[in-house]
Design goal:
Helix 1 (12-22) packs parallel to helix 6 and helix 5 crosses helix 6. It contains six helices and seven strands, in the order βαβαβαβαβαββα. It has a seven-stranded mixed sheet, sandwiched between helices. The chain has one domain (2-190): Rossmann fold. The chain is α/β, with parallel strands linked by helices. Helix 4 (94-99) links the parallel strand 4 and strand 5. The longest helix is centred in the C-terminal third of the chain and has 25 residues, at 167-191. The chain has helices spanning 12-22, 41-49, 64-77, 94-99, 123-131, 167-191, and strands spanning 2-6, 29-35, 53-55, 82-85, 104-108, 136-143, 153-160. The protein binds 5-O-phosphono-beta-D-ribofuranosylamine. 5-O-phosphono-beta-D-ribofuranosylamine is lined by residues 7, 9-14, 86-87, 107-109, 175, 178.
Length: 201
């Protein structure tokens, strides 16, 4: 199973997936990394790992349709089977979404369907969880469709919200679990325990 990544910033989830592949815990190959951010740590990690990487953004491709095509071309050229969004802050274009329908995963740092949707990214998510007085939070791995954070849920993990938590302390607790559940869910896809409707190239 060839995995293609889209990441905007740190890429720690991407790294956890790559590490799982290298360690043989995930029977898959990381084949390409795409970032909209030319300076991202994610692209740096790709270079360190020797994984082909591309900076594709509104800067490199001002026309949205051209950008969509460029992203799709890169994924197809590297024979990607499953696309893993890992902190990707942009929406995918319609061509990429259609081609990989049912084979694009994302991880969200809360228990969807709560605390998702437009504007719910980064610390905003954890601020919202704390403000709502939730007793628990967690992470959700889900399929991506046209809507933000609305696709079918594949896996969830829960963590407690502790008294005195700040968005940062909660984020750190959730992130530890993200790094476990994302590779584990991909392994279930690789072994056929989870069957994606859109599987096959
Ligand atoms: C994670 O919290 C993930 O849930 C969200 O964006 C963050 C990405 O972090 N979608 P990283 O780039 O993987 O370190």
């Amino acid at each position: 199973m060839n995995i293609g990544f889209l990441a905007s910033h740190g890429g720690s989830n991407m790294q956890a997936i790559i590490d799982a592949c290298r360690a043989g815990r995930l029977h898959a190959a990381p084949v390409v990394v795409i970032s909209n951010n030319g300076d991202s740590r994610a692209l740096e990690r790709a270079r360190t790992e020797g994984i082909p990487s591309y900076h594709l953004s509104g800067t490199t491709h001002p026309d949205p349709d051209g950008l969509d095509r460029a992203i799709l071309d890169a994924l197809v050229r590297h024979n990607v089977d499953v696309v893993a969004l890992a902190g990707y802050m942009k929406k995918l274009g319609p061509k990429t979404l259609a081609h990989f329908k049912g084979r694009i995963l994302n991880i969200h740092p809360a228990l969807l369907p709560k605390h998702g949707g437009k504007g719910m990214w980064g610390m905003h998510v954890h601020e919202a969880v704390i403000a709502a007085g939730e007793k628990e939070s967690g992470a959700t791995v889900h399929l991506v469709d046209e809507e933000y954070d609305r696709g079918p849920i594949l896996a969830q993990v829960r963590v407690p919200v502790m008294p005195g938590d700040t968005p940062e302390t909660l984020a750190a607790r959730v992130l530890i679990q993200e790094h476990i559940i994302y590779p584990a869910t991909l392994e279930k896809i690789a072994t056929g325990e989870i069957v994606l409707a859109g599987e096959g190239r």
